[in-house]
Amino acid sequence: MSISDRPLGALTAEDTPLALMETRRALAGPDSAHAHIWTRRDALLAFAGVALFMALAAGLWAASGAVVPWDSKNHFYPMFRFLGEALRRGDVPLWNPYHFAGHPAVADPQSLIFAPTFFLLALLRPAATMQEFDLFVLAHLLMGGAGILALCARRGFVPSASVLAGMIFMLGGVAAARLQHTGMIISYSFFPLALLMLEVMLERPRLLNGVGFGILASLMALGRDQVAYLFCLVLIARLLYAAAVSRRPLDYLLGRWPALLAAGATGGAILAVPVLLTLQFLATSNRPGIAFGVAAAGSLAPVNLATLLAPDIFGSLDKSYDYWGPGYDTIAAPDWTDRAINYLFIGAAPVVLGFWHGLAGGRIFAKEMRFFHYMLAAALIYTLGRWTPVFSAIYDFFPGVSLYRRPADAAFLLNAGFALSAAYLLHRYVAHGAPRPFQKMPRALAHGLAAAAVGVTLALILGGLAFSFAHGHGVESLIAVAASLATAGAAAAALQLGDKFDKRSLVAILLVAATGGELLWRNAADPLNAEPATRYSILNEASPAERGAIAALRKDISERAAKGERPRVEILGLPGGWQNASMILGLEDTLGYNPLRIADYERAVGPGDNAVDPNLRHYPGTFRGYRCKLARLLGLDYLVLGRPLARMPRHMPRPNALPIFVSDQIYVYKLGRAAPRAYFATRVMGVDSDAAIADDNIPDFEGAREALVDQGDLPKLDPALADPAAAGGPEGHATIVSYESERILIDVESEKDGLLVLHDLYYPGWEARVDGAPAPIVKANILFRGVPTAKGRHRVEFLFRPFSLANLASAASTLLDHREE
Asked: Which neighbouring-strand residues pair with 245?
């Protein structure tokens, strides 16, 4: 009797080494799973399959008149339109004056400036519609799907299995549910190509291959989001894994050092400046790092894994948005996830393959896919975050983790891993049939794996049902689970029949087609990723009320502009598309929608990260109301609201304001007390700007003749300017001659030395010239810029030059100092 056939209790001590060897051999699987040699026809048909799938998905959005909603339209689309308009004028939009009273777009990872594909689209179609924008995002997923096909072809998977992987990668789980997060989708879509090029470079370590890998990896990493960060770690792990399994790791790496050096040099050259500018911004932003508690709140609760089996178990796909799954309202511990973040469904057949063929059949332990299953395990641990005992250590000791707020972003790695694993398991089915663990491995192990598969399945289903019953939705969940189990049962029966009658290739094709249909039904143009385009009308085709409000506002502002004035507006309490519509409308807004904001501005003005909910608008002591000193310095002269002032939340100040447009949807008010954008002060007063913001107290000063200057900048000025007697005499005059995003010209005339104050936000990278000669910029009036100017007539030029060696050196120095602290 072989060891495999003996009961576990009958094994002797002498049998143990042999049993271990037999177990290891059984788990490892065959060295080669009957690799399929791809032909040109195979490649064309496979690509046609994934392209048809994506075309059908795009057609569903078009047929329903829907667009990808939320962040896609509230944030990324306006950023794209701002980029496109600047490129149309022949500029590169490094500074955004229409966002939070001024924003360093060049340093913001979400501005799309360093996304080459979107940069190209902005050049070719600067005013692309929302629908065209969505198509371009879907085209990125198709590109990633093509990369998955190539990875599968390298491994010899049959074309049908490869198409399954491509479809899951493109519209499975969070790839579909989080289509709104354009930046992450871009990073995600470049990963298969980067991984493919890494494998080619390791196989043929030529310099050109190294450069190619460096370029593709950089295109992925330029997103500078957590998805890009985690996939960078995967690429590093893939390199180290290849070295480790080579048996001579050091020789393996040394034999490839020229290609690796070329890859590193290429990637460094592409990434160095964007990353440095982003780190510079983070250091001066409201989010220099993420506290552990905040990051932990973005963990994926384990019960969400039930959506792998039953996509609608928590009402995730309910069109009335009746979601009862884990989130802020349903979990006692802080939870900042939502139904899109928590959605993992990839199709019934892939899940059946995973639990039956993969876990119960032991095929997930096969040698040829071991790296990707290690990746899946690591991604699952990271995704679960605080629900595992190791995330706190990862957060504390792993560089870069503390910069990101949502461990659940690692679900993108899960989806990529699920795609490749499903392809492998379907390929093994076509090549070898269903697994027969009781014939191939020790019975104890076979029983253990079968029990694990059944146990995990039951735990996920029962856990999901228990959660739903606890929140009063048990019946709906039971129906969802029953429907999913019926679909899974049909998939399992098809696999069994195909094996029995030796029709595995046909069954594989049918299951791939069924999975494609299921993903289109469940994951395309559904409540997780589609809303009517009319909800974002202000971004493309404004409604009559919106057109009326904008016309009234522009008319009044243009009359002010003719007098040399540049008033700002505050848009608050209107639907989501309005939050960053100022970038398209050309209005200098004091609010917006962005998780990253200049820290001093956030503290002093209190804008919050979105302008939809007026309850999130703060009014710190430095900005007690719209008649306060700081509001006047900002030039804030218009309010654009979603309801009358009298009906705004109680905490919001109610100034006496003149209505200039009123409808049942939009209310535009004029305040009428804005300070000039630029003026000339003949006396300065020193102030600790940080302390003034912290103490909610801006010192009094005479706005027409005096200016506040941060104490740290006083040495840059003539001490005589701080003399109280310096304020006497005639006023100087400042006239804005030209105002562009990155270049501002101001003519100054004065009989005395003084300080030109420009009420635009102080930020690193801005430089000044007086009559062409470099001049220092000081922080003036708490948040703004000032340039010392001698008496007489002068032309002062402000230039935003973030790429200058001086700014990059300053950024690097600041970061090094911060790290030492």
From this structure: none
